[in-house]
Amino acid sequence: MKITWLGESGFILDDGKTSVLLDPYWSDALGERRADRHRLLPVKQEWLERNYDLVLFTHAHIDHTDPQTVQMLLGRQPRLMFAGPPSSHAVLKDCPCFFELYEGAKVTLGAFAIRALPAIHSDRYALGYEIVHEGKTLYFSGDTALLCDLAARVPHQPDAAFLCFNAGVGKNMNAQDAAVLAERIDARLVIPFHYGILPGGVTPEELEALLMKQQRPCFTPAYGETFEV
Length: 229
Ligand SMILES: [Zn+2]
Ligand SMILES: [Zn+2]
What we know:
Blueprint: E1 2-5, E2 11-14, E3 19-22, H1 29-33, H2 45-48, E4 54-56, H3 67-76, E5 81-84, H4 86-91, E6 98-100, E7 106-109, E8 112-118, E9 127-133, E10 136-140, E11 160-164, H5 175-185, E12 190-193, H6 205-213, E13 226-228
Parallel strand pairs: 3-4, 4-5, 5-6, 10-11, 11-12
Antiparallel strand pairs: 1-2, 1-13, 2-3, 7-8, 8-9, 9-10
Helix pairs in contact: 5-6
The chain binds zinc ion (ZN) (2 copies).
One zinc ion binds near residues 9, 61, 63 and 194.
């Protein structure tokens, strides 16, 4: 499967037959509200010109569930399917095809088996996701704090753990928390995210160094980079 990182929490997962888009933030909605929140990098035209089979959201914060991005997607694909927690649905009321997901919900699409997982965040409906594809298990943490039982409720030894972290603000993991979670679930590979587009964010060096101490592989894609998992 090919995965493209879109900056912040956005990813495209594509196996040539099915294309899943996760938490796309393609507008400048935050910059329109606050002058110090303008996006730093432009959206790539190729992302806007592709077709998707499903758009998944982890929670309702605007850099994860962005109504302007959804309007762009619907302009091209009016029947596109969306799925995510009820908090995301609440800000996307006009979406014609939205499936509400709660922890434990399963969605099968082509070769993708998706399961909604817990995330402990300031949006109380926030979710993480397990995505199993051709024998590989991927874990997307979404925005979450590290609570003591989180590791027991998400996949153990995932082939890749996509771990969301920032400076530890807004009920999110910081780099140390993300390293602890990676160790507790014994992730075979860590891909850190939730930075890159917005000013004042974290950079991955601290987390990379902590993972190196664990001798745990870590991959930090460049903005817009496509890689295989
Ligand atoms: Zn959030
Ligand atoms: Zn976030």
